[in-house]
Amino acid sequence: MATATTPTRPLIGARVTRREDLRFITGRGRYTDDITLPGTTYAAFVRSPYAHARITRIDTDAARRARGVHAVYTGADLAAGGVNGIPVGWVLPDMKLTDRRAIAVDEVRYVGEAVAVVIADTPYTAKDAAELVAVEYEELPAVTDAVAAMQPGAPVVHANAPNNVCFHWTIGDAEKTDAAIRGAATVVRQRLVNQRLIPNAIEPRAALASYNGATDELTLYVTSQNPHVHRLIMGAFVLGVPEHKFRVIAPDVGGGFGSKIFVYPEEVVMCWATRQLGRPVKWTAERRESFMTDAHGRDHVTDVEMAFDARGTVLALRVKTVANLGAHLSLFAPAIPTYLYGTLLNGVYAFPTIYAEVDGVLTHTTPVDAYRGAGRPEACYVLERTMDIAARQLGIDPAELRRRNFVPAGSFPYQTPVALSYDSGNYAPALDRALQMIGYDAFRAEQEAARREGRYLGIGISSYIEACGLAPSQVVGSLGAQAGLWESATVRVHPTGKVTIFTGSHSHGQGHETTFAQLAADELGIAIDDVEIVHGDTGRVPFGMGTYGSRSGAVGGTAIHMSIEKIKEKGRRIAAHLLEAAPEDVEFSGGRFSVKGSPDRGKTFAEVSLAAYLAHSMPAGTEPGLDATSFYDPSNFTFPFGTHVCTVEVNPRTGVVKVLRYVAVDDVGNVINPMIVDGQLHGGIAQGTAQALWERAVYDEGGQLLTASLMDYAVPKADMLPLFETDRTVTPSPVNPLGIKGVGEAGTIASTPAVANAVLDALSPFGITHLDMPLTPATVWQAIQSATRRG
What we know:
single chain, Aldehyde Oxidoreductase, domain 3, Aldehyde Oxidoreductase, domain 4, 7-stranded mixed beta sheet, 20 helices
């Protein structure tokens, strides 16, 4: 029997153990902080203790005189040195742009914003000297709540944004939606808060920059999910460094969850400082710095109205969301609560009409941008939480209400009222399988019996859809994206038939070195160990867009497939020439070119690759060598979907929620490696469950982050979660030739409402219809006490 470590053909669909894990679990990974160059110096930042203040004076003299200190720079130094503001990567109509500087010049707008940097021989010297920098501030009023920030008289974050509104965005048909709501038999209304989260990748952000004055070349090692995007933005727009003189390397990256997509101030400072000093400069965040300066996620306040007819069929959805953007516009921040949120509000349901409006609001808090799911979890929470509230209000079982409102299986491709056209889908089988696995009817009976005993069990359902692989570039460009969203791949066959693949995608935990090797080995009929995957280095890899939005398999994998097809076609022509046959009479299978009908007449892939490089006998007009490059720009998103079901028990005396079981049935199209797909789902479910029950970033009224360490921000432990039970349906995507959809964010999208719905189902005997997340023991206990007093 084949095991995970002894894959058999075909490799596509095999549970191949991740090749990269050997170096990770034995401590031989090479992360940015592991890299030290000769003469490396170290940076420490002086950061604002105020959420909003005017900088009146900075005295750096004592820090400059400290032993081992090479330089102290302020925002004024960078501005005088030609460093521009960090641009935004998605521009909406009438959006108010913010001028975000790598180091603040005159005014600070959130706690932790840098006001100076000290560079010294050691990180400890730099930190000690940073404490010698004397900064005088004039503290100003601050506002951290986005709804409050819109009110007249609220403290101003940026003068060019009246009422702190950065943009107002709408989608859908307002008149049609209003009319449908007015004529509905039932309208469910609810305010939903999707709280702010902090990413907490296991590896903190880090940057090491080195300048070679002899060649005028700049190299940056950085924790990035998209090194080419880093190079383009920093080189062309911030630093003024030509791309051919600027190399960005993202070595092993220990998680990102979206937080390492963006260009951050610290990376800009390292690159500028090394050019000033002529020595490498390195910075690695401490965990407290990560809490204060890594881009946060979520932070929506939404008023939702969902309308139904007398039979419980959806008629309309109206959504009004206030999205907290923080103090500055991060790279893709404008897209998250708009095109990645509003366009997903149709979910898996056949809404005749939808209207959504979003206010993007600036506050004196850490900037907010993509966090695993990036708009999709927020949309799913609005839909699935409201669907459960509606089921109770309508007196219909929540599973049945979902089933009767699914988009019919025969309706694909399906055009939604909010711009997107779903590629493929069949939603009912995933729901049915999840209910079967959880034992839905039996659990409902157990639940009733438990209530009679004073025990409170709950079950929650979440039927979700995700949009992966944003595309095509022409469309997203017209919507405000400042970059294309294609992907590149070069497949280089060596003379002996070994293969190196250079991919523009970037792995920071997804297992690309395994899945991409599986794909290539399967298609070329060679051993998986004969395939090398190279990524993360702009000096070696063709320009690529990186990894985010669950795009690597569907977009990056397809680019690899396209290059392999070109390799096979050239190999077929060379083999035909060597076999004295017509190219159309030669077929390729199992790593061998052979003449149709004469399988004994053939050449192995290695024999053909060697012939291509020897070039002793080549078809007329055929160049030597065997490699190919492809750029793949999808014609549409892909749309994974599924149903997750969670069961919980709530202790009414303590408010503690125990997750009993968690079942996930997902449809991610064709699967390259089921083990890696399961791993992605497990991680996503853990993060989504954490949002439902534990995690929340909290600011006080003065803008101080109260949850700025792992002592106060509740990241779950493994023993707080059950074993996840997974299964799949398979509906291939017609968008790409591999039929792949994507899976990286599915677990995060589905799990938060599934868990929240389960808890609220358990609390229903108390008359509690909704509580805002996280559903901590204190929140649940207080709600039970209040309900009991009312009763």
